[in-house]
Amino acid sequence: MEIETKVRSGAVIVRLAGEFDVAAADRFRTEIDTLLDADRRLSRLILDLSKVTFIDSSGVGAILGRYRKMTARGGLLCAVGLQPTVQRVFELSGMTRLIPAYADVNQALAAR
Amino acid sequence: MDLKPGYKNQMHLEFPSRAENVAFARAVVASFAAQLDFTLDEIEEIRVAVSEAVTNSVIHGYKSEIGIVTLDAALCDDRLELVVADSGRGIADVAWALLPANTTAPEERMGLGLVFVTQYMEGVRIESAPGRGTRVFMAKSPGGAGLRH
Q1: Where are the alpha helices (DSSP H) in chain B?
Q2: Does the ipTM exceed 0.90?
Q3: The pTM is what?
Q4: Which of A18, B10, B104, B106 would bridge A1 by S-S if both were Cys, CB 3.0 to 4.6 A apart?
């Protein structure tokens, strides 16, 4: 899985592409946590999942861990561009009840 | 490998319990399953189920050690049958492990892996005992049970 991060308006925008499984989860965790730990002012984490072609419970677990981390520091995590295959796994795992979803990054940035 | 009587086709795969082999395992099964008339959604469900079962062998079965995971797939009539097996630590209480949120792994494992397997596949059966490894049996037919949408 490719992981690309950038910071915009106090938000970390993470674009993921490929298959989000156990092999990708460790790298995702390390990259995101390094960014978040370096700047406590980052209050929003926006995950762009529009290029994610596969996710299983390892990927969901890694996202849930970042959700907890953001919540603990008073921040927010949201997801954008959920493809049907990702949407189904999110629904089955209860993630849709926890994590707001938007059509794209601009909508997520506009939401407060 | 012995040919199973009455089976149209079968395959057997062995690989080390490395995280990067999880993608390999689900790709192989998806390709094998394409011999039946599965929908894309059903193939996706099979991919998730295989990914979860193999990940369990990697994370729970062998933990930080490397062991061998085996994957057997067979086609009987219009039914795909799968067995994912390891010779790792095994599960003390299979019924407990099948419940959502129950996991022995630290943080971030959600205990959802086997829930996905039972939701997406038919005839799921787990044989396991501490120190004696784990075998996960599952099957699926096109248009059969599993999570429908």
Answers
A1: 20-33, 40-56, 94-97, 113-120
A2: yes
A3: 0.91
A4: A18
